[in-house]
Design brief:
Largest sheet: none
Structural class: mainly alpha
Number of strands: 0
Strand content: under 5%
Distance between the termini: 39 Å
Amino acid sequence: MSFPVAGTIMVEPTESEGQAELDRFIDAMISIRSEIREIEAGTWPTEDNPLVNAPHTQADLIGDWARPYNREQAVFPLPWVAENKFWPSVNRIDDVYGDRNLHCSCVPMDAYEG
């Protein structure tokens, strides 16, 4: 979302979010910025780092691991994530591709009786 200023992201938590949840959000933003610094410093390549490979699934972690960051950095970027880990079933989805290459699985309109 780029409202009200183009090229920016607006975050507007609801009144129902408690202080602890807001603090977790801020910690996540700080952690993401730290990962960006690792890329800027050349520690991680721009094409293979936790940011471009997120989210990491359980399947990503099984078997060989040939990435410039470790598994713990991929799965538990902050300590509190381990307490309530959500495991995504798929990696990042290219929504732009889906938006531009729409595939309708609906039945044809003439199949409906009107």
